[in-house]
Structure formats: C-alpha cells, structure tokens
C-alpha cells in the first residue's frame, strides 16, 4: 500500500491556513474588462516606446538599484533617493514589509473590507492578522489605533483610497491616526490609487507627513494609473533606515528593465496622465449618476472603480458575463451583494449600462 503524503502538513501553519489570492478574470478577445482596476486607456505612448527600446537588451540584467527611476522619482516626490524601495508590483513591497517587521508572535492590524494581500503577506511571514470592523465601509481609524495598544502589534495597514470600497481619508484623519499609534508600530499607507483621488477636495496623500513620522511607510503602484500592470512595478517611500531594512530582504534584480524604462517615460508624460485623471473623474460621476437612476446604490469612491450594490450580485455578474463584460464579485471581501466595477472608457461604460438596464 502506498504511503500517504501531505505537503500541507509540512508547511508552516500560518501558510497552510492561507488561501491563494484570486485575481480578476483574465482578458479575453472581445471581452470588456472592468474587473481589475486597470487603466482602460493603457500606458502612455512614451512608455510603450521606451519599453520597446528596453526590449532590445533583454540579454542583460536590469539595473538592480533602478538608478534612473530612483533619481527621477526622488526629484518629483522631493525625497532622498535612499528613502525609496522598488518592488515587483506593490504587492512585492507589502511582502517585503511583512518579511522585515512580522513573524511568529507579531501581529498586523487592518480593516474589514481591506485589500486581500494584507492577510496573505502577514500570514506568509508567520504573523497574526487582526481585523478591525469597518465603519461605513471604510476604516475605523480610532478603533484601529486602539488595536495597536497591544504590544504584539508591529504593523498596521491602511489603504487610501481603500480597495474595494473606494473610501478615502483626509490628511487630518491620517495625521490624527499617526499621532495615536505608538512609534514602535510601522504604519503602512497604501496609496495604490492616489492619482485618481487627488481630484477629491478632502483627499491628501500622506507624503508630506514622512518627515514627522519615521514609522510611516507609503506604498504606491505603476499598475493602475500608469497602465503598466503587466510589467509589475511598485515602490515604497519611507525613513531611510526602514528602506535599508527592506532592501536587505529584497531579491536581486526584482524590477525588470522594461518596467523601469516604461515607468521613467510615463512619469514624464504629464499631458497623457492628466487626461487619464480627467476622463476617470468624468466617467466616475457619470456612472454613479446612471447607477442611481437604475436604483443601485454606489459607495462614494475616490479611485478608478465603483462598488455597486446589486442585491443578487451573483446573478448580475453572470448576466454581465453573458454579455461579454467582466466585473469583480467581492463576496470574499465580506460584500456578497456588491460588485466592484472598474471605470472603463466611455464606450465600455455605455455597454455596461445598457446591459444592466436590460437586466433590471
């Protein structure tokens, strides 16, 4: 009789308890893709050209320090170059933070309805996740601050804007939160969608607060706004000592040469980026208005997606798929009656609305 063998029994218990991350539906020919919060306009033409040029030297290793990108980004953000850490997507950055600051006996705090990678990064590092109940589908910052009084807590994750709800925080709210959290706790402000949020009068990035709070880490992405999701590039801005620690566990050559070249070009194409912001804001308002006319509640959003109450979200999702439109069910985020819908091009949004009108 063959011996039974169970790989899960050999794994770290914290890993064995995990479920793999479930990405949005892959792109298919003829499918309208509104599931993964991608920029529907794609990358800047300048970024595409830079990527083509970088592809001519694929036999060479990339710049392991991302020197050109580092210098450009540091100048734009008005921070020192040694405050930057680059990763293979911002998920990689979140994982680096967990590997440095979490482990057995250590706890990370984050909100209900928060990004699914937070528990994955926490538990894969051997840490424990503490989920704080949401308030009005957003972060209950006072409750999260209170949770950090537990000396086992080493990290707290806060997304601004939050994915999947679109909820955002003012600088005053973040500042009050940072004042309330002990300096022994690393506060991660996930700003993956900040470019879209800057059109909101009461939104502000945490970037100006870095000099005052050495325990603050800001994470950002080139996947969403810059349209470089396939290339995987994210970064963190932090105190130099924190960046140094993350770079100790960062894998060599973790950001490929094409991603670096495309990011440098994209950061300098102001006209294209401003046009993307303007169209997103216009279409976000248009969709919210039309959804209201259909009797569907949408959560206020500062990002490039809307969280829409559909009642029977499973049936609505299946209906949309039958019309070749992919959106994101979010029952795994504790929101079984809602769909997260990426804001597409005007043409894509119209097709979505027509399909939902027929479903209604």
TrEMBL record:
| GO molecular function terms attached to this record | histidinol-phosphate transaminase activity; pyridoxal phosphate binding
Q: Which cofactor does it need?
A: pyridoxal 5'-phosphate
Top EC class for this record: transferase
Give a GO biological-process term: L-histidine biosynthetic process
Where in this chain does the record put each Aminotransferase class I/classII large domain? 31-356
**Family classification:** Belongs to the class-II pyridoxal-phosphate-dependent aminotransferase family. Histidinol-phosphate aminotransferase subfamily.
Know the name of this protein? Histidinol-phosphate aminotransferase
Q: Which organism is it from?
A: Spiribacter salilacus
Q: Which gene encodes it?
A: hisC
């Amino acid at each position: 009789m063959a011996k039974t063998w169970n790989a899960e029994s050999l794994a770290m218990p914290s890993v064995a308890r995990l479920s793999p991350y479930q990405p949005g539906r892959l792109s298919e020919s003829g499918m309208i893709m509104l599931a993964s919060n991608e920029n529907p306009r794609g990358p800047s033409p300048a970024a595409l050209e830079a990527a083509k040029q970088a592809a001519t030297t694929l036999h060479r290793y990339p710049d392991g320090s991302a020197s050109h990108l580092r210098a450009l980004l540091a100048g734009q953000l008005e921070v020192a170059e040694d405050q930057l850490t680059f990763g293979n997507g911002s998920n990689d950055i979140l994982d680096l933070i967990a590997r440095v600051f979490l482990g057995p006996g250590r706890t990370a705090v984050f909100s209900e309805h928060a990004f699914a990678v937070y528990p994955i990064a926490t538990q894969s590092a051997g840490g424990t996740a503490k989920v704080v109940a949401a308030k009005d589908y957003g972060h209950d910052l006072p409750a999260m601050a209170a949770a950090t009084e537990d000396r086992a807590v080493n990290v707290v994750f806060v997304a601004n804007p939050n994915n999947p709800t679109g909820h955002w925080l003012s600088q005053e709210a973040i500042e009050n939160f940072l004042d309330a959290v002990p300096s022994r706790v690393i506060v991660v402000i996930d700003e993956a969608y900040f470019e879209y949020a800057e059109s909101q009068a009461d939104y502000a990035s945490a970037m100006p607060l870095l000099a005052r709070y050495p325990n603050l880490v800001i994470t950002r992405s080139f996947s969403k706004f810059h349209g470089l999701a396939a290339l995987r590039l994210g970064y963190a801005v932090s105190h130099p000592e924190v960046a140094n620690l993350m770079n100790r566990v960062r894998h060599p050559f973790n950001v490929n040469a094409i991603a670096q070249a495309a990011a440098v070009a994209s950061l300098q194409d102001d006209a294209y980026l401003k046009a993307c912001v303007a169209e997103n804001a216009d279409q976000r308002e248009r969709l919210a208005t039309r959804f209201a006319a259909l009797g569907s509640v949408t959560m206020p959003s500062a990002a490039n997606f809307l969280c829409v109450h559909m009642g029977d979200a499973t049936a609505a999702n299946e209906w949309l798929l039958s019309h070749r439109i992919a959106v994101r069910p979010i029952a795994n985020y504790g929101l079984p009656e809602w769909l997260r819908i990426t804001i597409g091009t005007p043409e894509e949004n119209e097709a979505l609305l027509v399909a939902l009108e027929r479903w209604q």
